[in-house]
Every structure is written in C-alpha cells, then in structure tokens.
Specification:
Rossmann fold; alpha/beta
Length: about 400
C-alpha cells in the first residue's frame, strides 16, 4: 500500500510538470515567440505571392516584348512600304509563339555606315575628307609629297579603290591607335562646306539612327560593317546618335596594320610580346579593304552567325546582304537598300524607280530617302548652294604636280 501511494505521488508530479510545460509553450507561441523561425523556414519554401510568381506560371522574358514601331519610328513617313515592312518583320520575329520567332541571341542586324547610316556626300566619304585635311592642312609635315599629291587630286569623280585606301594607311604611319582615334574625332568637329551648320561628325541620318534604337529595344544586337577603317568607324559611331546601341567590339571595318611600338620592322608578331606600358602603332601597312565579298567573310569570322537583317546602300554591300538572305539561314531574314534620291535636303542623284526595280530583283527592299524619311538631319542643317568647293591647298598642290 505504501509503495502504491509513493507511485501515485510520482505520477502526479510528472503530470503537473508536463502540464506546466505545455502551458508555457502555448503561452510563448501566443506571444509570438518562435514565429520568426517558422516564417523563415516557410519563406525558403514558398515566397509570398506578391513577390514571386507561382511556380506553375512563366514570367514573360524581355525577348517576347515588342516595342511599338509606329511610335518608335516617328521620323519615317507613314504609308510607305519600308516602314511597314520593318514593323511587320520585327513584330513577327519578336512575338512569342510566332512561326517566325527568333531568339534574342540570334537577332543580329548589320549596317553599312557611309550612305546607309550616315552622310557620304560632303562631297565624299568621311575618311576621304579626313585624309585630305590631314595631308594638306593639319599635318602636311608628316606626310610625303607623293601623299600630298594624292590628297590634292581627289575631286568629284575620283575612284575610291583599294589603292587609295593603302595611301590612307601610309599617311597615318607612326600614330598610336589612341592618337589616330582622337584625330578622327577632332577632324569630325570641323564644318563641311557641302551643308550649312553641319560638322562632319553630325552626319548620321536621323531616321536610321531611330531605326537602330528601335531594333536594339526589340532585342537585336547591332553591328556596323563599314568600308571605312575600323578605328575611324569606332570613333564616328562613339560620337553619334547610335553610340548607346553599338559596342566598340561590334564595329568591323577596313584594317590597317598595327604593331607594338619598337617592333614595326619585325616580320611576325610571334617574335615579340606586348609588355606593360607598350604602345600599339600604325605601321603604314595595309591589311584588307572591307567591301564586297570581304564583308561577308568578316561577318562570318567576327560574328559567327548569319545576320537576320542587313542594311546597305550600294553594290559593295550586296555580299553582306546576300549572306543574310542565303537559304541556309535558319531564320527569316530581310535586306534593305537606302536609295539616295533626295536632291532637296541631300545631294542625292539616284532614280528611285530604277534602283528599286534593280534591288527588288535581288530580293532587297528599297528605302527612299525622299519619300520614307520625314526628316534627314536636324532642322538647322540644310543643303549648301554648292556640294564641292576646292580649297586653296588642293589647287596649289595640283598646280605643283602639273
């Protein structure tokens, strides 16, 4: 009996302790102690609905968002074929679920520069005018008499061939790449006589700059593929309205030879190494002119994919455009040609009907500067009375050569 009584007392004590413990835990939870840990564990498993989409829903990717072309291309006239074609194409290839949908990584658009993105009628190309200025005005002491004669002989009707490009390379021999880049920028600050209130660097066609931005906003990677030398092209693009949409490494152009200073005469770059503080200099040598078939070769070498959009303005761009339109391109592609048919706001002399028929046969879509562009340049820039005015230095050097 005594043993039973002791056992009952022990069980009573155990029961009382258990009840007290349960009451204590209940009280603590009621007060909120321990809730943070529970909440933390829950958050690891399921985030609040207003912060993260449920697992069974897909968050739209940027590549599925199409920017309205009618608003974005405000400097293009409505009712023209080029604007409609561009908008329809971009809508088709950026719309999720479309049969023509192109992933962002494969949305590559390539643009020629001179005559496509920018002016080439003052009275000729940017790089040619720069060469004339460098040889005859800015640094005649640095170039040979032969190069001065070449610069002085450049007049309307001259031939812009590889031989001339090789002379460009010779003129800048000894300059570091940085010095050459800076000179291209400084030259651009000079005013051209072919237009009123225009510096050379102000040469971009506003509707084309707008198009670049529109494509960029729709997930396209923009490349500039120019016949102008690469460093010069980079300098022009970096100081243009499209500077925020084209990376320096997305510029391809004609290449002049570059070596490490002090090693210019060594036949192979494999014979020496770049060291900290070394300078890269132009040797005067020439590598390759980026026109015709070279454009398609450079695109393959440096991009490694076929573009889906290509823009040019002359026969030297057709290889690049055909490379995009090639039937082996896995995506729907288009190619556009800018026709210089505006002789009021620009110095255009081409016949749109004639050029359009020619380009249509080749599978290209024509852009009329006269009819498609609502505006070409800022309002203050107007066409001058004369396109070509020979300067005194050209006349003097031509007379000496004679």
């Amino acid at each position: 009996m005594e043993k039973t009584t002791k056992q009952m007392k022990v069980w009573r004590v155990v029961a009382i302790i258990t009840i007290c413990a349960l009451l204590t835990v209940s009280t603590l939870y009621a007060a909120g102690v321990g809730w943070k840990q529970t909440e933390s564990v829950s958050a690891d498993k399921t985030a609040p609905a207003d912060e993260t989409a449920p697992a069974d829903e897909t968050v739209p990717a940027d590549e599925n968002v199409t920017i309205d072309g009618n608003e974005a291309l405000s400097l293009w006239n409505d009712g023209t074929g080029a604007k409609k074609n561009l908008i329809d194409y971009v809508s088709a290839v950026t719309k999720d679920g479309s049969a023509d949908f192109i992933p962002v990584d494969d949305r590559i658009a390539v643009f020629d520069m001179d005559g496509t993105l920018a002016c080439e009628t003052f009275y000729t190309y940017y790089d040619t005018m720069m060469f004339i200025e460098y040889c005859l005005h800015d640094h005649p002491e640095r170039v040979s008499d032969e190069l001065k004669e070449v610069a002085a002989s450049i007049k309307p009707g001259y031939v812009a061939d590889e031989t001339l490009a090789r002379n460009f390379a010779k003129a800048y021999a000894g300059m570091t790449v940085e010095e050459f880049y800076n000179y291209a920028v400084e030259f651009g600050k000079k005013e051209t006589a072919s237009f009123n209130n225009m510096r050379y660097i102000d040469n971009f066609y506003l509707p084309m700059a707008e198009l670049v931005e529109y494509l960029y906003d729709n997930g396209f990677t923009i490349w500039v593929i120019s016949g102008t030398e690469r460093t010069t092209t980079r300098a022009i693009v970096a100081n243009s309205p499209i500077k925020d949409y084209v990376e320096p490494e997305h510029v391809i152009g004609t290449d002049f030879e570059v070596k490490v200073k002090g090693h210019e005469d060594e036949p192979s770059n494999m014979d020496f190494k770049y060291e900290n503080g070394d300078e890269l200099v132009l040797t005067g040598g020439f590598i390759q002119k980026n026109l015709n078939a070279n454009k398609s070769i450079y695109v393959e070498r440096e991009i490694g994919k076929r573009p889906v959009l290509a823009f040019g303005n002359s026969g030297s761009d057709t290889s690049m455009m055909n490379y995009a339109l090639d039937e082996r391109n896995p995506y729907k592609a288009q190619a556009y040609m800018v026709v210089a048919d505006d002789n009021v706001r620009e110095w255009g002399t081409q016949d749109f009907k004639e050029k359009s028929e020619e380009y249509t046969e080749k599978g290209f879509i024509s852009i009329s500067m006269k009819d498609d562009f609502a505006k070409i340049y800022p309002d203050e820039i107007t066409k001058a009375e004369q396109q070509y005015i020979p300067d005194d230095a050209q006349s003097e050097d031509t007379a000496k050569a004679a």
